[in-house]
């Protein structure tokens, strides 16, 4: 479904929605959601940066009303919209076609929801495990603390596979990146947290989880192109080299 | 009043205004979506039973006519033998504000973008809700319930099945299951939200925003409670309970598990919308993103 919104077309569609009248961000999200019968509900994190960029380009402007920003299209924005009318019409046709066949749509909705739900459950399971192995034990079972904080052999390969889309060299590379990021954290923290190995390990675990989930989320949003993904992979492997030097030496 | 008897795959355009939808199917897949256009009914498989569609005074109804089944104790056997034969595949598009009552014997129910009362009654099958906002009530005997991006007042009830709510901004949420896990990810719930989660033998996982205002009561009779909010106090020797407040504590969050663990997680807040910098693209609530 996001394929409909490739190459800056979400931006165009936002302009189109704003041309119908001033709206605040949540309204835009809701309108998009309705337009796609719920199948595409962009997050605030997808919409607002685009609005900000549109504003920087002078195509929209905002006014503050009751604590929220109400966006409005400018004359330049309207000109842009007229110029790209053909593209917009094409987009509209595609959107319409994507919801015309109700039977297929039902299948898509089902897959979309179960996919998202699966992702969520995995994310929450990871987060739970992290808290359990970290220092936030609230039920007074201190023996868990620190003891398992550092490594959890079960997680590493799975995390690596999920990080892999960024990295064309695949699982092994991802896994190493993962481990070295952990190492990096320990290296950075150890001077001030000497003696509290458990909590440092917990911090580390969290940092790694954060890395994994953020990378996954960014990749899934699909905003990055091939070139950007390749660049990201390069960043990861150069960080890896640096970390190896830091930790092994 | 217009009535159609469907015996083969068919698409119907309903010209009447529709404000209520009433569906009752024996088996198969039922999907209802809210649209801004007129109502449509698409039947790609009518199933082996007589299926009628009728539109009358704002009420659109689609139903299977159930034949005489075997008596008494033989009835489940009859269903077991026949349900597959009767499976229909019905997709309906209605205006957003349509109140819907959906009944299905076995199969799956899919509902998306309805903004009114919704009542789902399913004996065995999967229930999927997407972007539904309104008074939602789903009762399932066996089968999972999955909801994404729903809001309003939600009451979900299943005997054996998992309940998962992703990106929920419900004012009232009550989810109960006897055997099955319960997962709720609450985004942006109103300050006066009332959330109750109960399971007999399953895990409960709840994630709330770090800036939530909730009075929290979590009790795991035979399990343990894990909380990402360090301020919450833990009590109890046998089993664990947590009682405390997050933020101003204006809303209420209650979770009870008999045989499973409870974990309360913390969701980082999205960057303030106004100051959306290049960073904020990364902090969106992930699971809402279309996965296709």
From TrEMBL, chain A:
All copies of domain Transcription regulator PadR N-terminal, residue ranges:
14-82
Give positions of region: Disordered.
131-203
Which portions of the chain have biased composition (kind: Basic and acidic residues)?
175-187
* Name of the protein described by the UniProt record: Transcription regulator PadR N-terminal domain-containing protein
- SUPFAM superfamilies, per this entry? Winged helix' DNA-binding domain
Give the organism, scientific name. Rugosimonospora africana
Database matches in InterPro entries: Tscrpt_reg_PadR_N, WH-like_DNA-bd_sf, WH_DNA-bd_sf
What's a Pfam family in this record? PadR
TrEMBL record, chain B:
- A Pfam family of this chain: DUF4097
* Region: Disordered, residue numbers: 270-292
**Domain DUF4097: residue ranges:** 47-264
What is this protein's record name?
DUF4097 domain-containing protein
